[in-house]
Amino acid sequence: MKKILFFAGSNSSKSINHKLVTFAASQIVGHNVEIIKLTDYELPMFSEDIEREKGYSVNLKMLNNKIKEADALVISVNEHNRMVSAFFKNTIDWLSRLDRNFLEGKKILLMSTSRGKLGAASSLEATKNVLPRFGATIVESFSFPSYSENFSEETNSISNEVLLLGFTDVIQNFVHQIEQ
């Protein structure tokens, strides 16, 4: 049984990316799943001055430990103006300063969603290119378009049958990859 950590790269209290990772967690059986919110690990905007003067916060160390304890991660990234959100980038900046290889040995399913037709694909691609610098292995990725049209918050599930089939396939491939 593998330990899988789920979180969204968003700081919105109504994050659709958090809803997507929550749904993804519900689709995995036979493994220990944990869903967290990055907002529970408050970090100041990264600054070399803060790093030098105050060092690394307890919140940062706790988040790093959560990641270290996991065998695999499922991350859903949001998008601001076709870029990764400043909130998520800030989190990555702090984690990488504490430990340059904070994702060493971690297999990752990387997802994204937005209310638009591109499903935050730009943010997904940017994150897919950056996380391996910190030791991650991206084993699967999935961009979920037009969230409001394709996800039912009433049933907490994907309502578009074609997208559901694709999502299920990605989840199954991810689980297969982490079990090896």
TrEMBL record:
Pfam families: FMN_red. Residues 3-143 form the NADPH-dependent FMN reductase-like domain. GO terms for cellular component: cytosol. It comes from the Bacteria. SUPFAM superfamilies: Flavoproteins. InterPro entries: Flavoprotein-like_sf, FMN_Rdtase-like_dom, NAD(P)H-dep_reductase. One of its GO terms (molecular function) is FMN binding. This is NADPH-dependent FMN reductase.
